[in-house]
Model the fold of this input.
Amino acid sequence: MASNPTLQMHAEQQPLCAEVGGDWVLANVEKLEQLIGRVRSGGTETIQQLNMQGLRRLDTTGGLLLLQLVGIPRPENLPAYLQQVDDHHKIILLAMAEAICEAEATTPRQHRWLMDLLQRIGMWMVDAWLQLRLLMHFIGVVITTTIRNLLQPWRLRWTSLAFHIEHIGLDAVPIVALLSFLVGSTVAFLGASVLRDFGATIYTPDMVSYAFLREFGTLLPAILLAGRSGSAFTAQIGSMKSNEEIDALKTLGMDPVCILAMPRIVAMLVSLPLLSFIGMLAGLLGGMLVCSTVLDISPAAYVSRIYNFTDITHFWVGISKAPVFAFLIGVVGCLEGFKVSGSAESVGQHTTSSVVQAIFLVLTSDAMFAVLFEQVGI
Done:
């Protein structure tokens, strides 16, 4: 049982001395704070000496409060502040004073921002490397599971696959078509504004078809699905992880990757190419609307221009990227769901991470495809 601490001031002494007694330990921290608060509220000058004759017990909490009473002097100056102190208590106070001084002897403040920046960059690089390794491992697991499902097709959950195709593909048709239509109209309008200065507005259909068949027709649905379906994958699997349903599947001898990840990834592989085709058509229709209303290019002339001067290779270039984007979005969404630790906060963090990573990978791979096709002359 800790005895009550005491703190008495001897204002008549010069230099100003404080006499401490009892137990200055963690158990009495509230009482110690009250004693120190009363001393400081009384407008007492800086304490320059501590009489520790009556001190019975001292731990690090009490030692820190005693050092704060005398302004935390440097370790070599501390003995001058202490009177009638026990050797054991003196060792504690000296060790704490040394630790505090070492902690305060940090990099000068004007250079700390650089160290903080380098430290954060290093942490980002390490996290990115660990995430890349984990992603490669999960891709290997998915490929292995896919091969096993091809050899044993009855293992794939066809009902779940049909449900996810409806949710990912069919339910996303309106938003994909609307967004592609609006972007196609914008591209045609802005492109025509530039081409008009050169008297080349007749090439607006070529520009719209080239942009949507090669890039926007696939890229816009991929970004939409990364935010719409990829985040849903993470939230659904993450909630199951929080509720220990995935642990229950493992206990029953079932493969969570086969049951949860494969139907979603396959559904994404089926849905995104179809949505890309719809996005291409919607974007071309948006360009046709602008051409017919602003540029006096009739719908028949618009279609004829695209048919005669647009190579079908552009369509195959754009549609060939859709399965790669779909695979990346599905794998990242499922992987982040399996990484959820169990709390609601973790579900939110990994859902956000899923969207960011999926969009980053889609844009990075699209840039790599652009360089590749340019190098091979497609």
